[in-house]
Amino acid sequence: MTALVDGFGRKHDNLRISVTDRCNIRCFYCMPAENVVFMQKSQLLSFEEIERFVRTVVPLGVRKIRITGGEPLVRRDLPVLVEKIAHIDGIQDVGVTTNGILLAEHAQALWDAGLRRLNVSLDALDPKKFEEITRRTGYEQVLEGIEAAKSVGFDPIKVNAVSVRGLTEDEIVPFGQFARETGVEVRFIEFMPLDADNAWERDKVLFAHEIIERLSDEIGPLEPLPDQDPTAPATDFQFADGIGRVGFIASVSQPFCMSCNRFRLTADGKIRNCLFSLEETDVKSLLRGGADDAAIREAVVASIAAKKEGHEINTARFIQPERPMYSIGG
Fold first, then answer.
1. Which residue has the higher pLDDT, 160 or 326?
2. Residue 315 pLDDT class (50, 70, 90 cuts)
């Protein structure tokens, strides 16, 4: 059967599935602070529709699934979906990205459902800075969630920290120490133009090489880990003394578009072949309109075939998508 290969020879085996656009915090780089209009429940794909879609694309070579939101843990009974997907023949890896606020409550159920990979979004270790970024409370719950996840067996746990110039420089060293003290892997992510307020500017991007330099100067030298996955978005390092791992997703300064193997299914059933796509393919109408699996696969193959070379953030041609991050899926 036809594999999901685009016009640049990139093979797509990694699907990110958003299960909701709702969230219990309001990070400025993702959502408006107030008056967010969320999708109606009827607009969201059901767990059965998501399961059918995954089963449909597995023969095209999809092997990895990551469940996102919004905040996926606000979707009722998420472990039920995790278990459905984890038991599909051909799926080798299922992960969830969460802000961690509800994680302590759900960690055991997610583990029991078959989840083994967990990413927690946490942009500051200072509680006041956390509230400035998220525009909500919940810092202690996130830390409790990480501890709960560790206690049930998740290892490694990756903590994703968006880095913004003029805001999070003072978080760099504490996060490096956090990685060394807790065993979690901290991944610094360059601030990307997907904010709901369209306030992104290149001058606000705190670049990966600057973070590496700061960590090296104030904690100790970093060494790249061997045998890294060439399709992974992060470049991973370990402190030279062997204690603590950090990673860097340099989407702006070092785009990894030419090794990208990911595509997205939004909560309302649209395929996006790139995080920054300006076009979408509606598969919800196919799922609900009686289309057979072959028709759905044909739509997915066509979407991937039309994928552009890269996101063009660093060019004058770049156009920010109308959908902000919470609506696309993290």
1. 160
2. low
48, amino acid identity: E
Q: What is the pLDDT of residues 226-267, one digit of tens each?
A: 988 888 888 999 999 999 999 999 888 887 788 999 999 999
**pTM above 0.85?**
yes
Residues 6+ apart with CB under 8 A from 202: 252
pLDDT tens digit string along 88-144? Answer: 999 999 999 999 999 999 999 999 999 999 999 999 999 999 999 999 999 999 999
**Contact (Cβ atoms closer than 8 angstroms) between residue 180 and residue 219:** yes
268: how many CB neighbours lie within 10 A of its CB?
A: 18
Residue 194 is assigned to a structural domain of this protein: yes
Number of structural domains in the chain: 1
The residue segments making up the domain with residue 320 are: 14-328
Q: Give the pair of three-digit tokens for residue 310.
A: 């890269």
CATH number of the CATH domain containing 151: 3.20.20.70
- Residue for token pair 């060439």: 230
10 Å CB burial of residue 7 (0-12, 13-18, 19+) is exposed
Alpha helices in the chain (DSSP H): 47-57, 78-86, 103-113, 127-134, 139-152, 172-182, 208-218, 284-288, 293-305, 325-328
CB 18 within 8 A of CB 69: yes
Angstrom distance (rounded) from CA 270 to CA 266 = 5
Burial of 150 per CB tally in 10 Å (0-12, 13-18, 19+): middle
Asked if the structure places residue 302 within a domain, the reply is yes
Express each pLDDT in 172-192 by its tens digit. Answer: 999 999 999 999 999 999 987
Of residues 297, 309, 305, the one with CA closest to residue 255: 309
